Amino acid sequence: MSFINTLINGEEGLFKSDSLTPMQKLTLRFVVVGLIYFGFVVIEGMLMRLYEYKPLPFITEPQFFAILTAHPLVGIFGSTYSIVFGAFLFLVPYLMKKPLWSIKLANWTFILVTSGTFIFWFAGFVSHYAPLYTLYWPLPADFTQFSVWGGTFFIAGIALVMVGSAFFVINIFKTIIYTPEGWEQQPSKELLASALGITGFRNLFTKNKKEHLVSLPVAAVARGSVDVALNTAIILFTGVLILVYMVAAILGFDLKSTAIDALLYKNWFWWGLDLIADGLVLIFVAGTWYLLAMMISGKPLFMQNIARAALLVELVVSWTVWSHHLLSDQAQPAILKVLSGEMVTAFELITQGLAFFITLATLWSARPLKMTNPLKFLLGGLLGFALAVPAGIMQADVGLNRILHNTQWVVGPHVHVAILVGLTMTLYSAIYILFPIITNGAKLYSQKLANVHFWCHLIGGIGMGAFMGMAGLRGMLRRSLYTHGEFNIYMLLAAICGTLLLIGFLTFFYNIVMSIGIKGVIGIFTPAKTKTKDLVPALEVI
Amino acid sequence: MVDSKMVLTGQTLAYTLYCIVLILLVVWFSIKVTGKGKGFGVKPVIFYTFVGFLTVLGVSLHLITYNTIPWAEMDLNRSDYTPDKTFVIKVKDHQFIMPSEKLLINVNDKVLFDVQSEDLTYGFGLFRDDNSMMFQMQVVPGHRNDLLWHFDREGVYTIRSTEYSGPKGVFMILKDVVQVVSVNATN
């Protein structure tokens, strides 16, 4: 097959977009959009990395901070939320062997997350609205520094993403509990209790133990979705509050920013925001590791009941750890710093450690395994979190936080290694394993390119985090600029590793486009030929 | 007193060692899990030992740092200490408003920095000549932001805002304004 033919029709012409069900198309749309936004994030990251080395003539300082504001938000909402929502809207019904409750609502999730991300990104790009994702009060309403109109569109874009997230949560829970047409009545309450962990909790105290009605990965999705819901409510509430100030400013009223207590605001906002980093991400990732380990090994999960209980502990822990973000706030009560900031946060070492061990033990039980793409990326994801979680536990310490807070240490070995290596490699593992299922048997164009993708991503991600961390330990702040080359050696090395990440991503994107062809990519975005609610053409279940 | 630089050196060594061991472990696992051999279940005792190890590690980290990092205890109980000197610093419109041009401190003084923001959330940090950080705290408007620090050696330090407060905040740097001198020198 010629290069041009493969580029147009995909590897061996195996991918036929006309054969896709509406659910397959929707899932693929989420993934494609998520990957495009990941491309935005990688390019933005590289621009900032180069700027940290030497200011670029075509980027002004306000623009730099606008990029710094958009970068994590596009990464979390535009990329990660898209891929995760798409995957789970497919996987939950797939694992429960019933159709999704509402494809229409799922389509709205897709539209809102995609358009909302574009709106806030574009608003930041045009107006340089740059209060960062932390939105520390009263910075988002400081109209002496930022455009009120830019800010209004920015916050409105975030709000759209949140509405899409709320629709996702509704769809997930309705799918778990509803009775499809023509089916025997489903035990809704029992299903919900099983998904949320109430059944397992009751079993601890009764002799008459009830069986778990939903599988472990579905329980993980449900529990992570609780955090999505809580996080959505907090961000929406905060967004509306900021919008009130913006609308007032547009109408000519100057509302006093002192009406809102900055520390109280910081507490509630971090409580909600932390439900992403220390809640849904960890729970979704643990659930995905378990599912991948079972699919790769073909064996039941090691210590399944403990794993199930750990997911519930993780959920409760995620509601009580926010104070580790306020260890440098001297007005924050010491009891909150020690209990929430240090002690409860340390539980994440235990819950993530358990997930790490259980996944490895499950894989071990099936040795010898073939080093497939899903397995190698899963191992990369496990390594990423095993490196990043202890780095986070170290900075969540009253003593160490005094010299680590807001340095590149926080954002390097902890945030970037967790997201780029831990989370993203887990997502890549899921994409590689689901690829033949959601494409009805399309074939990967090149295994060599998949290997290049793996090594570039792994080395680039760990290397970038390491060099940022070294700069942080020598005092380099995040969210700041150094114009005299103070940390240039570390920024240069981090930029080289960032380039590896970019090469890895472009290799992966090219490999996927060559696998399904340009015709296939376009076909994903055209209406489905069939109106079936089935997930795959001939209903398959694992 | 143990300096913050020494604490960071210890942390660097410990974390680097951990990373090397972990990477080697994953490499070993990758080779073994795909190599020749037969799969068998991991004994629960290994699992529970691992859980116990993580629990001890998680709790002991904070106990160790509390008892070895000198400023940790002092910070949590700073109201129990009487500072030798107090500096009230105001922050407004992306500027530090200092009580005097230079802040002079004697070696072995316990100094309270009381920083008050009149508009945005800022940061307040002291940095050495080589840009490494001595300490920092957040400066939240409408709240008390005070930090007690024991200066046990001579030095000259730069004040810098450690929290983002808009693009202008990048320039909130007061070079070499804190001077710690020996008592003899001040006499």
Structural write-up:
The complex is a heterodimer of chains A (542) and B (187). By secondary structure, chain A is mainly alpha-helical. Chain A contains 16 helices and no strands. In chain A, helix 2 packs parallel to helix 4 and helix 10 packs antiparallel against helix 11. In chain A, 59% of the residues are buried. Chain B is α+β, with helices and mostly antiparallel strands and 187 residues long. Chain B is built from 4 helices and 9 strands; from the N terminus they run αααβββββββββα. In chain B, the strands form 2 sheets. Chain B has a 5-stranded mixed beta sheet. Chain B has a 4-stranded mixed beta sheet with strand order 2-1-4-7. In chain B, helix 2 packs across helix 3. The longest helix of chain B is centred in the N-terminal third of the chain and has 31 residues. Chain B is elongated, with a radius of gyration of 23 Å. The chains are: A mainly alpha (542), B alpha+beta (187).
Quick rundown:
The complex is a heterodimer of chains A (542) and B (187). Chain A is mainly alpha-helical and 542 residues long. Chain A has helices spanning 3-9, 22-53, 61-96, 103-127, 148-177, 188-196, 198-203, 216-250, 262-297, 304-318, 334-364, 373-395, 398-404, 408-438, 447-473, 488-524.
